[in-house]
Design a protein that fits this description.
Layout: E1 2-6, E2 17-21, E3 31-40, H1 43-50, E4 66-73, E5 85-88, E6 91-93, H2 99-102, E7 113-114, E8 126-130, E9 135-136, H3 145-148, H4 154-164, E10 175-179, H5 183-194, E11 198-202, H6 206-214, E12 219-221, E13 231-236, H7 241-249, E14 251-259, H8 272-275, E15 280-283, H9 289-302, E16 308-312, H10 316-325, E17 331-335
Parallel strand pairs: 10-11, 10-13, 11-12, 13-14, 14-15, 16-17
Antiparallel strand pairs: 1-2, 3-4, 3-8, 3-17, 4-5, 5-9, 6-7
Length: 339
């Protein structure tokens, strides 16, 4: 099979991914081998490629929004799974024994592994994964693999960010601010509107602001504009510390800012008065298998839309450069040869 592999992180003005020919890997006892049909690209992939997020192993096949069909299974896995269409998300494994795992917080497990960071991911024709983290996509059976792929990180992590912000089906009438309007924020807006939440969007782009209004936001402005009403919660997507500070200033008493980023530059000094009245800042760290399962059901229920552009697998370097420059609407989805 072929894969696009990272060996030398650095500026993506130079191609960081190289085409590699790899022998097919036999799955271990608890694993499955997946023929990949689509893999969406993510800003985290860019941050790993540039070295902003340090690599856990090299060479590495990036990609953690993977859709494919199970080709082979390990000795401990029911062969009935062969042929099943599954999705891989950011979480690839966890110990299952620590206090975090036993409490349903496997995203915090010290021995957790993550797709396209600790283990090879989906910028390839095939991938091996732990069977219990290869998620059944039956609720989305009528959707194409290309349209589902951007759900597996942008959507799932957006769903977890909403949970961290303490918003859900019982939050009708709440006010939510989205700081940034990329692939994840677009999906968060749809989920929040489904729950009856009023959404306020801050973005650097007039075009994105208009797109947010057309998608149902009640207000859209710049990062430094103050929303016309105090927010019960805000989610920041841009990896910029100053935006977190702006979001805090827009909170109502008791409000929460959830930082939806694996990497963030330095947080600026903040006035304690902006944080007082039990306002809080929380990070969103990874996802759990429960998050993924619940999100897949919700995405099917509300027919969650994804904006994406198809790229051939061999064009992954160009995709990284365009993500860095901001010249993408929604997500890029990589298409392996023959798909």
């Amino acid at each position: 099979m072929i894969a696009m592999q990272l060996s030398d992180p650095g500026p993506v003005t130079t191609d960081r991914l190289t085409l590699a020919h790899i022998d097919e890997i036999a799955p271990g006892p608890d694993q499955v081998l997946i023929d990949i049909e689509a893999c969406a690209m993510c800003r985290t992939d860019l941050q790993i490629a540039t070295g902003d997020v340090p690599s856990h192993r090299l060479p590495l096949t990036p990609g953690h929004q993977v859709i494919g069909r199970i080709r082979a299974v390990g000795s401990a896995i029911d062969r009935a799974r062969i042929g099943t269409r599954v999705g891989l998300a950011w979480i690839a494994n966890a110990c299952g024994e620590c206090r975090f795992c036993l409490d349903g917080r496997e995203n915090l497990c010290y021995r957790a592994a993550f797709t396209g960071w600790d283990v090879d991911g989906g910028y390839a024709q095939q991938v091996v994964a732990e069977s219990r983290f290869a998620f059944d996509l039956a609720p989305l059976q009528d959707r194409s693999s290309q349209s589902i792929a951007p759900l597996m990180c942008a959507g799932v992590i957006g769903y977890r960010a909403l949970r961290i912000a303490e918003l859900g089906a019982a939050s009708s009438g709440a006010r939510l601010g989205l700081y940034g309007y990329g692939a994840s924020a677009r999906q968060v807006l749809q989920m929040a509107r489904h729950w009856g939440v009023d959404v306020y969007v801050a973005t650097r782009s007039d075009q994105e602001a208009q797109s947010a209004l057309e998608a149902g936001a009640v207000w859209a402005g710049s990062y430094t504009d103050r929303p016309p009403a105090p927010l019960d919660a805000a989610i920041t997507f841009a990896p910029v510390g100053s935006i977190v500070a702006e979001a805090v200033k827009s909170l109502d008493r008791g409000g929460i800012v959830a930082i939806n980023a694996i990497h963030l530059d330095e947080l600026p000094a903040m006035n304690y008065d902006d944080l007082w009245w039990e306002r809080s800042i929380r990070s969103v760290a990874n996802v759990t298998s429960q998050d993924v399962g619940e999100f897949i059901e919700l995405a099917a229920q509300i027919d969650l839309k994804t904006d994406y552009e198809l790229l051939d697998l061999e064009d992954a370097n160009e995709g990284l450069r365009r993500i860095e420059s901001g010249s993408v609407r929604g997500s890029f989805v990589l298409r392996p040869p023959g798909r």
